[in-house]
Design a protein that fits this description.
This protein is mostly helical. The protein has two domains: about 45 residues, Homeodomain-like (Arc Repressor Mutant, subunit A), CATH 1.10.10; about 130 residues, Orthogonal Bundle (Tetracycline Repressor, domain 2). Helices cover about 70% and strands about 0% of the residues. The longest helix has 22 residues.
Length: about 190
C-alpha cells in the first residue's frame, strides 16, 4: 500500500469512528507514522484529503448498486438501491453524514453538477427511473428532478433516523422507508 493509500485509509477510519471534525492533518500523519509535512506531498489541504476519501466512498456505494442483481421491476431496483443506501448509512453514520448532510466546499451541487453526471449515486437512481419511464412503469418526467426528489425523501428519512427522531428498530425503519418511497413513486393524488 502506498503512503497516499495509507493516508486515505487512516482518514476514512478516523472519519467513520469520530466524524470529520476529528480529522486533522497532524492526526492523520501520526496514525500513518509520517511527518505532517509529508501529507502535503499527496494532499494540498485537509479539504482535499476529505474530498478524495468522500469521492471514493461515493464510488463504493454506487459500485455496490451497479453490481447488485437487477430485478424485473424498476421500482424494485429503486427500493434495492434504497436498501443499499440505508445499509451504508447505518453501518457508517458519521461518514454518511459527512458525505450527504454536512457542508463541504467541494460537494457537488444540484442541478448542474448532477445533470452533468458527476454524482455516482444519483446517476444510478436516474438510470433506474429512466428504465421505468421507458417501460411505462413511471410516467415520463424530468429524470434528474425526479431522482433528486426520491433521493431527498430517502436522505431525509435517514437523517431523521440517525438523529434519533424516528424511534423504531432497523427492520421497521427500512419498511417505513420502502413505504414512503412507494407512496412517492405512486403519487398521492386521487
Amino acid at each position: 500500500m502506498t503512503t497516499k493509500e495509507r493516508v486515505a485509509r487512516a482518514t476514512r477510519e478516523i472519519l467513520e469512528a469520530e466524524g470529520a471534525e476529528a480529522v486533522s492533518m497532524r492526526r492523520v500523519a501520526a496514525v500513518v507514522g509520517i511527518p505532517p509535512s509529508a501529507l502535503y506531498r499527496h494532499y494540498p489541504s485537509r479539504e482535499a484529503l476529505l474530498s478524495e476519501v468522500c469521492d471514493a466512498a461515493f464510488d463504493e456505494v454506487a459500485g455496490a448498486w451497479r453490481v447488485s442483481p437487477r430485478r424485473h421491476n424498476p421500482e424494485d431496483d429503486l427500493l434495492a438501491a434504497a436498501d443499499a443506501m440505508i445499509d451504508f448509512a447505518l453501518a457508517r453514520p458519521r461518514l454518511y453524514s459527512y458525505m450527504f448532510t454536512e457542508r463541504r466546499d467541494r460537494a457537488r451541487r444540484f442541478p448542474d453538477d448532477f445533470i452533468d453526471g458527476q454524482s455516482p449515486t444519483l446517476n444510478v437512481v436516474v438510470a433506474d427511473l429512466e428504465d421505468g419511464m421507458s417501460r411505462g412503469v413511471f410516467r415520463r418526467d424530468d429524470p434528474w428532478a425526479t431522482a433528486f426528489t426520491v433521493a431527498a425523501q430517502l436522505h431525509g428519512l435517514i437523517a431523521l433516523y440517525l438523529g434519533g427522531r424516528i424511534a423504531m428498530a432497523e427492520p421497521t425503519f427500512r419498511d417505513l422507508c420502502h413505504d414512503c418511497l412507494r407512496r412517492l413513486l405512486h403519487g398521492i393524488r386521487s
